[in-house]
Amino acid sequence: LWRLGYCARLLKTNRCQTAASNTSFPAVWMLLAQYSGRIPGPFVVVQKKSFFTMPETVEDKSSLELYSPHPGVRGMTVLDREAFKRTIVVPVLKVKKEIVNTLLKSLKQTVLQRPGLKRVVEDPEDEDSKLVILDPHKIPEFSLGESEQEVLKKLKVSPEVSKYNLELTYENFKSEEILRAVLPEGQDVTSGFSRVGHIAHFNLRDHQLPYRHLIGQVIIDKNPGITCVVNKTSIIDSTYRNFQMEVLAGESNLVTKVKENSIMYELDFSKVYWNPRLSTEHSRIVELLKPGDILCDVFAGIGPFAIPAAKKKCRVFANDLNPESYRWLLHNCKLNKVDSKVKVFNMDGRDFLLGPVREELSKELPLLKGEQKTSFHIVMNLPALAIEFLDVFRHLLVGEPCSAADLPMVHCYGFSKHDDPEKDIQERTEGVLGTSLAGRCSTYLVRNVAPNKEMLCISFQIPEDVLYKRPCPEEGKEQASCVALGFEAMPS
Question: Taking the model in full, what pTM does it have?
Fold first, then answer.
């Protein structure tokens, strides 16, 4: 205790002295640490000698950012893989070859586990031995704990930990580590990307644009199978739901294949809409259908609702205004051998509802009686605008309503930035339909599109007072014949 107190007083005195006497400060600190029992005397000497076998700049930073690329890559806009090389100091154990595997199992929590880096390397001084690399984060002071030393004692392995110069190259770093080292400090590395077949699709932010070509090449390097990286350069066109994009790296081939829920689709990503994040939603809606049901897909795209529904033996009417989507929809129906079960249209969504959908409703709804199990579903997946199309259902049919159980079910998608998105989507739907849906609808949160912006699906049976217009009694037989044909009489 007296020695410890003496060292403490000496340490305090050194802090107050001039720059010349401060040169002895580290020695006093080591002396204090030695007397306190935190650092054994022999270790202090070994540590001091081995410190200078590696550059101080590497050793100082290795404990904080051990697996960061060389700091000189900050601000790089053209990828230079050689510039990412860096040497770090890691702890190793010298082990006889015949017990290496046993040691790896016994010290699996302590041995280096980083993917892409070898845990065992050759011993340059002894061909009968190997060097087992330990995790520097688990052995920060190059000294093993008691439990590890017990294991080594049983295996008759020396507990002495040595230092090994481990060279890290571009291949050893993950894409996030590379981009974090290159982009300005404190800024987002990436905004994430979607994979569509061999294409990686980014929505880069403004501060990332100067590095976009480097980002593209890194993604290709680090993701097997990706051969093209694109960045969206404009908002989605509300008419055809496609957008302008720039190829950042790789080939310019944007015709690709994707597999979703065990179904293969082909598409030109630059000309049609496809979002892999909607896979679960496509599956959710199709699971609601039963064989024999009728599905009308108003904004069908290339068929992610229509084709699985047809494979489930539903009757499908699929429409899309985009001529390219129409062409790929036809192609994918043939590709999946359901072209005989899907009627495909290239129309405006409103015209599709007023024409083929109304005709089918007029024909089928009167037949859905008694034990009939067929249900009628209408999917409207155009989140930016679909709710505005719901006014089409107001008095779409003329005549006496069918039973409430047989009324068509609508699944309509929309975006909301409201604090209560479910309430918002319901109120907007009610406003267009002109009636309350309280207790007659359900809302489902599909996904978060952006901060404070949600995509939702509202499902409801079209109320009979909305769907049907009852004919006036005095209109007589002429009106009745119009009803039978499914046409609405002209107003007098």
Answer: 0.73
